[in-house]
Amino acid sequence: MAVDTLETRELRYFIAVAEELHFGRAAERLGMAQPPLSRAIQQLERRLGVSLLERNRRGVSLTGAGEVLLHEGRAALDATTAAARRTRRAGGADGPGGPRNRLVLAVKAAGSHELLHKLLDAYAAEPDAAEIEVLPCGIGEQEGLLRDGRADVALMQAPYNSLAGFDSEELLTEGQIAILPARHPLAARKTLSLADVSDVPDLPLARWPRHGTYPPGPGPEIHDQTQLAQLIALGRTVAVIPDSARAWLWAEHTAVPLTDAPPIVTHIAWPTHSHSLALAGLIRTAAQL
Amino acid sequence: MAVDTLETRELRYFIAVAEELHFGRAAERLGMAQPPLSRAIQQLERRLGVSLLERNRRGVSLTGAGEVLLHEGRAALDATTAAARRTRRAGGADGPGGPRNRLVLAVKAAGSHELLHKLLDAYAAEPDAAEIEVLPCGIGEQEGLLRDGRADVALMQAPYNSLAGFDSEELLTEGQIAILPARHPLAARKTLSLADVSDVPDLPLARWPRHGTYPPGPGPEIHDQTQLAQLIALGRTVAVIPDSARAWLWAEHTAVPLTDAPPIVTHIAWPTHSHSLALAGLIRTAAQL
DNA sequence: CACTGTCATACCCGGTAGGTATCACTGAGA
DNA sequence: TCTCAGTGATACCTACCGGGTATGACAGTG
Asked: Which SUPFAM superfamilies match (chains A, B) (predicted)?
């Protein structure tokens, strides 16, 4: 085989080993036995002429080239499965008799709710609108969904989401508010600054994941909106979130505008190389909102 | 095999057929016989549950799903070979004893010459600079080189190059000049407007390829700088190019500033997901120029 | 109505991916 | 020091499947 060709199978195998750093567990995850996996990785290293893994006593670690292949390979594997998924969708293979024209729109669950509603209504009114499947996802999951083809287009909020590697169009800029327990003293204020809410001893700031990891700090780690709402209602934390979140405030919550928080810009984003007519229509509709 | 997995081999095969629209020629290009290729495509269609090609009398054409797979598949295949190439480079597999740390920088041949010189000098002065291999390329080839891993980073000029899908940093903004045959009447002017040079009957404007194709028009199609220079010297054409091109003017050329041409912005650009230390150093150096 | 061009089918073969059994090595305890 | 557990590598076998050749089916053409 050519020296700069990789089979998808080889990528899957290497990524499994590189993530587990253990041939046995990687083989189990791949649903195969350990020896053929060892051999496949050896063949890969031999063909590339590069050592990818350091087999030292008690374990495996990545070489520099291995790090590169792990990152580049993930991107390549995502692109490959994206190709398969989008092709299947384009062919209407989702279900028998399913619509031939469908877009999957990834949205952070309960985020940008009002904007999403307006967008869907406006697009549905278009003459030859495709069917839009709304795919609710966790915080910061949109990038991965676009990359591996589970979604075609997403609503993202800068700077929470990274727009790097996607094309995008600005939709909405909004300020941020602090959401506090209604009974907390700070809830009585007309406005607050970031400094006011970031160092309250009895009310540590909630922490959101950024690119898969949580920043350090005393506050609770947040996975979804509901959990956050409950923790605030219980008086355990305070959150800084976009203005449109007022839509889901509870009775025990109080929203106070923040004077100095960075504005949140909601974008509609899609993979750079996309060029389907349905997607173009959706983007045009969104840009006219 | 899982229904949303594609083997690299299948992608190569399908893309060949989709580009040739002819099984026999595609098989020849792939260095194999036609029957196994036909069978492979059938298996692919069956596994995806999607029809990709329309085999009608006298030829083959793409279905909608086929179009999607052609585009997405090209991106995926590029990403895969990029992974292989960059891994090999990271492991120093380029040559025996070759340096472990090397970046390939794609530059339009003879473009941004002065800037490139400054960049290379400044970077070489850095304490732990990697080796930079300058890869001269044709007009608008940088994008492909970055995508399939033949290059790690490129100098691109907006709006000639499309920065979509890459991260980039602005380096230089410059105006444009018209390069004319020295003996032409227009060469005597102090300044010109785009209108002045775009409709001169005896001096049709040279045409550059944009994304692989040439815009229509009477002027000659330009492939490289030297050819352009010669055609201008012969009095056959006029070109509108960035100010820094004064560096390679011939004696028979005259440069006249254009008052209303869009400015050219040279960027340094790299694949979004890159994160090597060497690349980060080069970008930092470039941003400080 | 032969003839040509094109893709599909039938059938065969060899390479290789994957399985099982086992080895070689190393670190941890008793 | 001597097991013993844990890990990756090796040896060997089998079955599948990717690829080749020969040929068929069909349509358009002179």
From this structure: Periplasmic binding protein-like II (SSF53850), Winged helix' DNA-binding domain (SSF46785)
For residue B77, the enclosing domain spans 8-90
CA distances from A19 to A23, A79, A225, B6 (A): 10, 19, 30, 21
CA B68 vs CA A84, A94, A211, B53, B75: distances in Å:
9, 15, 29, 12, 11
Q: Is residue A64 part of a domain?
A: yes
Q: Are B264 and B173 in contact (CB under 8 A)?
A: yes
pTM comes to 0.89
Instruction: Find chain B residues with C-beta within 8 A of A86's C-beta.
Output: 68-69, 72
Q: How far is CA B212 from CA B83, B109, B181, in A?
A: 24, 17, 28
Where residue B29 sits, what CATH number does that domain have?
Answer: 1.10.10.10
Residue of A7, A30, A43, A80 best to disrupt the B interface, most CBs of B under 10 A: A80
Q: Does B72 touch chain A (CB under 8 A)?
A: yes
Per-residue pLDDT band for B110 (boundaries 50, 70, 90) equals low
For chain B, how many structural domains are there in total? 3
Q: What is the pLDDT of residues B164-179, one digit of tens each?
A: 889 999 999 999 999 9
